[in-house]
Amino acid sequence: MALTTGTTRASHRRDGADAGDDPVVRASVRGVARGLVLIGVALAAAHLVVHTLAALGVITYEGRVISAFDMDDEVSIPTWFNMMLLAGVALGAAAVAVATRMPRMRRGWAALAIVFAYLSLDEGAALHESLMYATRNVFGITGGPLWYAWVIPVGIALVAASPFAIRFLAALPRRVRTLFIVAGVLYVGGALGIEVVSATAGAEVESLLRDENDPVVWLLACFEESLEIAGLVVVSIAVLIHLRDHALAGRALAVQLR
């Protein structure tokens, strides 16, 4: 990946610099993958440690120590990491769209970039919370497996989008397609599947079935968020591999600042 600042060869000569000395940012897909996995594992471990210490009475739930590492907290380090991962995938998909020559695939990658950009916004602004309350009111949901009622409209949207997603996946190289499928299973399984399990177990303080500090609540939250992070890590790797091996295929991705 090359980063250029939009300077010309003439300006390079005026500045006494070699015209070929453009700054270059190099990244190893394997190194990025290893780093993302380590961060994900560290966040899950931190979540379990702080909640375990609180359960043992070593620390209390007052203040920001626990909430900063709580994977179920909307204002926490894990939530910020998720938001950054989603934004990174959006940027990567946008880069693929720019580099792709086939119009249909370019539109598919652009749509993917928009979806992940929205998901990043939702992760940071918790927009799905409003959707959840509205859906509860519409369907009169007072508890049970669909307590996290946002899964209903999101599930319908996923079913509606599935024909387009299948065509998009079918056109991808086999390795990238496999990674996308694995990522989708992990992310959707965590975001929707474990939400339904959590609601069924009463893992929601508003349901008055379990306290938010109940081990069932924070263990399920850890499992759910870990699956989501794993899915995002896998899709990040898939986008980087596609950029390296297919969309760019030996070319440099240059960013010119004018």
Rg result: 22 Å
In terms of structural class, how would the helical and strand content be classed?
mainly alpha
Q: State the shape.
A: globular
User: What's the total count of β strands?
Assistant: 0
Low-confidence stretches: 1-17
Architecture overview:
α4 runs parallel beside α9 and α8 (174-200) packs antiparallel against α9 (215-247). By secondary structure, the protein is mainly α. The protein is globular and about 55 Å long. The protein contains nine helices and no strands.
Summarize the structure.
The chain is about 70% helix and about 0% strand. It is mainly α.
Write the layout of secondary structure elements.
Blueprint: H1 9-14, H2 29-55, H3 65-69, H4 77-99, H5 103-125, H6 127-139, H7 151-170, H8 174-200, H9 215-247
Helix pairs in contact: 2-9, 4-5, 4-9, 7-8, 8-9
List keywords for this structure.
258 residues; globular
